[in-house]
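Re-running the complex after MR caught last week's input typo. The corrected sequence lines follow. Everything else is unchanged.
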Amino acid sequence: MRDFSQDHRWLSINTATVRRQAGAEVPLDRIIDQCAERGIRAISPWRDQVAAAGLDKVAAQLRAHGIGLSGYCRGGFYPAPDAAGLKAALEDNRRAIDEAKMLDAPCLVLVVGGLPGALAGNPAYKDIGRARTEVFDGIAASLEYARKVDMPLAIEPLHPMQAADRACINTLEQALDICDALDPQKSGMLGVALDVYHVWWDPKLEQQIARAGKERLLAYHVCDWLTPTRDLLNDRGMMGDGAIELRKIRGWVEAAGYAGYSEVEIFSAQDWWLRGGEETLAACIERHRSVV
Amino acid sequence: MRDFSQDHRWLSINTATVRRQAGAEVPLDRIIDQCAERGIRAISPWRDQVAAAGLDKVAAQLRAHGIGLSGYCRGGFYPAPDAAGLKAALEDNRRAIDEAKMLDAPCLVLVVGGLPGALAGNPAYKDIGRARTEVFDGIAASLEYARKVDMPLAIEPLHPMQAADRACINTLEQALDICDALDPQKSGMLGVALDVYHVWWDPKLEQQIARAGKERLLAYHVCDWLTPTRDLLNDRGMMGDGAIELRKIRGWVEAAGYAGYSEVEIFSAQDWWLRGGEETLAACIERHRSVV
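Corrected-run output:
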């Protein structure tokens, strides 16, 4: 297992972690500068932030700073109530793949979607089996294009509490079953983004990480599970402040062959997003070295 | 599949559903009277409510009304930071089994516990594997006593969002693995309480329900998953108001041989607990007939 205690060369910052600082939205170019100032070598930006800052500008700024990506957030959201919606989702994922390519990302992270409309509080249908079929077909279609342009897709299993509205792939086992069905040759073009927040509770986690292996483990995200958790989306904790055995899980991931970044992704409406970016980034670096 | 549309003979009310009415706590004897007035044939009461009302009195009142139990809530909470705590948990579960026996319950429902102290916001340890071992050992010990007095134990897998603080058994597969290890003969003394709220998202649900079969399916609980869900514990929906395919899941459960009550268990701090008991019970009856 790699020693993280001496430096933070394997730290990546998911830009959602600092997209709000002291309660205010912060543009991506400012976040990139903040990371560069602290010797952070990688980030994972979100599409809306990139669009707001300008794709070419972001690419140039990253190159100028020598900052790489640990992933690009995000494609997915495949299910739809009708054919037009399904087609629109595929087109949008194609654009996401192109953007990921422009930014030289190692993978596009897929949050696959749940029951269409559920995120707005009004599911168009309740058949989660149908949503899962639409997700499977959507990933298959995206993968075809992704192979052409050489952009790996990383399925992110989301916590079961987000099954209805954000992603109906909810365990690592389920994600790997899809990978094995669509990419049996383990080409490196289809794998998973493993976020401890979503999977830490899974009794089969160690077993399924070993099954995933190096070829499927395309990204690794950390934060912590707070007790109590006050919100289903935006109450993640800083590493070390919650219940997750971070060292143990990273040990399993590295034993399986993963040797990439440890990406910090914290949505925290009531705590970290209210603090200054300096404080949050300092905590990310310190905790990366001490508890991740 | 049984036809529920003509009557509510297979409806049971978990008394947590109406423990608060119009915002105020309601004693168990009043709840039992309300159920009797509506021809409800079964309830599932909670230990604290029974203790407050008096065990003998509750038993007598139930007999007088001809109301049975669909389960008794609840045993479990096995993990502890030390030997004294583990022993105390076993003793408490023994008392719960005795109470269930006094009330002629068909099973004692087990909410097995998570990281000790996590419910109070301060986990004594983070090793969920250790908690799972303590749970396994605890169930084994309780089962020995339960066999002697002939009181079946029903493990309730809880939603993964409650893994840290309430129950580290989080899928039906995991619960059935424990049942198979401790009761390979399928004696009927160890099984599961299946609550749709906790398991509806599981991609292996249909398969594992079939695996469970009649011998393991000791209780069946319904409510609904709201989008959005505003609280991890107390924001359950009335059947039909959320994303769960209730008919489909009951179909699987009955195909596996379950022929018992459909128990309504709704924790709803911001909605149903603020309404009158008459309205809530009327809704339970109507939805039982129309959507369960």
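None of the earlier attempt is carried over here. The mean pLDDT of chain A is 98. The two ends of chain A are 11 Å apart (CA to CA).
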